[in-house]
Every structure is written in structure tokens, then in C-alpha cells.
Q: What sequence folds into this?
């Protein structure tokens, strides 16, 4: 369903809580079960950290809890092609969100595979091999406000080189979660009698996660 880019709610996560050690990951085509002793609740937004051993695809994943028990949480992710979890890792709940209210534009270009051109002296036509996708990036244009709480959080994350979860809620009752390194909040651009603007960029460290509100 098409929608206008109006009343889009963006927010950045500033605090994680209820961290639980991961004791296993059960893969599936539609659901993934994360084994952990936890006190999460359904619809919590959770993130896995980067210390997982054996399943690089699970590192830094962000998702919404579909269901849970005291011993595990289930998320709607196709993990059938993940490598097997071996050990380690933690999962945490995003406890605090800060609204991002100065954005004027949102861009999330389709990640494209890196192309390698192949041509030998025996060929009459060049061929192309497709490698891995380019690193996905979300970019936003924002009005400059150095004291805006979200801008302060973005600058802190950029300075410390730490990951931040970001959520976008769209007017067609869908939402997108991303988890990545974020930079911005320092630059200023604008001419005479123009509103000062800046840029925010999020370099995703795991696939985006979509869900219905």
C-alpha cells in the first residue's frame, strides 16, 4: 500500500536494559527462537550484541518480540540460512526512545550487489559476477538544532562509535527497525535567509526489520 511521507515518527534508542545471556538459537523459516532466561514482554524491541560466536548473521540483529516464555523469546525472522550458534552473546531490550522530530527527508536506497567485471583474452564479451550487497545506509536531512535531545544522542553515539537502534513508524501502520552506527548532528548547511540543515547517516550492522503496528 502506497503512503505519503507525512506523520512519519522516527526515534532513536538511547538505553538498553534487561540484558540476558543467550544460551542457544533455534533457527526457522519464519520464526527464530532465542534461548535466554528473560523478563521481556511481547512487543518489546530487542537487540542482540556482537559477541555471538558461531552465527555472524545473528550479531547486532534487531527485532520485535512476537512471543516469549521465561526461557526464550520468539521473533519473526527467517534464520534458516544462518550458521549454527556456538556460544556467547547477549540480548537486551530497548528501554528508552528519544523522538527525532527535526527530520525533513528519509532515504534508504535498495542495497545493490558489488559487481566484478570478468574478461579474458579468450572472450568476446565481458561478463559480470555479483558479490555481496553494498553496506546498507539510511540517510536523513534534518533541521539543525544542536540542543535537540535526539541530536545530542546522535552526537554521543558518533563520538563513542557505538551502535544505536532507530525506529521509523509510517502512516500505513508499518514500522521499520534498524541497528547501526550513526553519525550526524554536527554539520550545518544553508544560505542567507534559509533554514539551517544537517545530515544524519546510519550504517546498518544487521538487516532492517519490518513489522505491522
A:
Amino acid at each position: 500500500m502506497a503512503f505519503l511521507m507525512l506523520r512519519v515518527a522516527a526515534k532513536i534508542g538511547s538505553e538498553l536494559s534487561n540484558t540476558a545471556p543467550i544460551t542457544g538459537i533455534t533457527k526457522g523459516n519464519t520464526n527464530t527462537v532465542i534461548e535466554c532466561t528473560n523478563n521481556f514482554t511481547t512487543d518489546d524491541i530487542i537487540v542482540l550484541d556482537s559477541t555471538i560466536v558461531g552465527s555472524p548473521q545473528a550479531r547486532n540483529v534487531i527485532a520485535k518480540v512476537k512471543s516469549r516464555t521465561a526461557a526464550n523469546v520468539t521473533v519473526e525472522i527467517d534464520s534458516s540460512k544462518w550458521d549454527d550458534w556456538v556460544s556467547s552473546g547477549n540480548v537486551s531490550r530497548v528501554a528508552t526512545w528519544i523522538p527525532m522530530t527535526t527530520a525533513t527527508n528519509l532515504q534508504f536506497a535498495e542495497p545493490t550487489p558489488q559487481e566484478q567485471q570478468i574478461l579474458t583474452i579468450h572472450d568476446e564479451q565481458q561478463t559480470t559476477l555479483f558479490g555481496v550487497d553494498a553496506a546498507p545506509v539510511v540517510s536523513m536531512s534534518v533541521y539543525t538544532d544542536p540542543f535537540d535531545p535526539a541530536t545530542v544522542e546522535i552526537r554521543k553515539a558518533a563520538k563513542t562509535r557505538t551502535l544505536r537502534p532507530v525506529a521509523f513508524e509510517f502512516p500505513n501502520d508499518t514500522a521499520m527497525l534498524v541497528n547501526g552506527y550513526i553519525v550526524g548532528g554536527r554539520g550545518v548547511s544553508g544560505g542567507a535567509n534559509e533554514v539551517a540543515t544537517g545530515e544524519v547517516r546510519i550504517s546498518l550492522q544487521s538487516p532492517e526489520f519490518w513489522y505491522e503496528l
